[in-house]
Design goal:
single chain, mainly beta, four-stranded antiparallel β-sheet, 7 strands, 51% strand, globular
Length: 81
């Protein structure tokens, strides 16, 4: 599955995620996404959520990746603002 991302030129970025069941939802920058892909420790914004919608806001320019791990590959929807 392709990992969604958003290029943020500056300021703040918010993602809203609609889940079907509880899941780990993270926003990570490029360096931490690389660490995540390599199985290393990484820093993130987010956590485990049992209620929807999930809203996560970050500050900083660059590419931000949305990672949703619900353990079963269930679909979710999201929007950036």
């Amino acid at each position: 599955m392709e990992i969604p991302y958003c290029d943020n030129p500056s300021g703040t970025l918010t993602v809203t995620v609609q889940l079907q069941h509880s899941a780990d939802v993270f926003l990570v920058d490029q360096a931490n996404f690389n660490a995540y892909q390599q199985g290393r420790d990484f820093k993130y914004f987010g956590g485990n959520y049992t209620r929807t919608p999930v809203k996560i806001t970050v500050s900083g320019a660059g590419r931000w990746y949305l990672i949703v791990d619900n353990g079963s590959g269930e679909q979710y929807s999201y929007s950036w603002s």
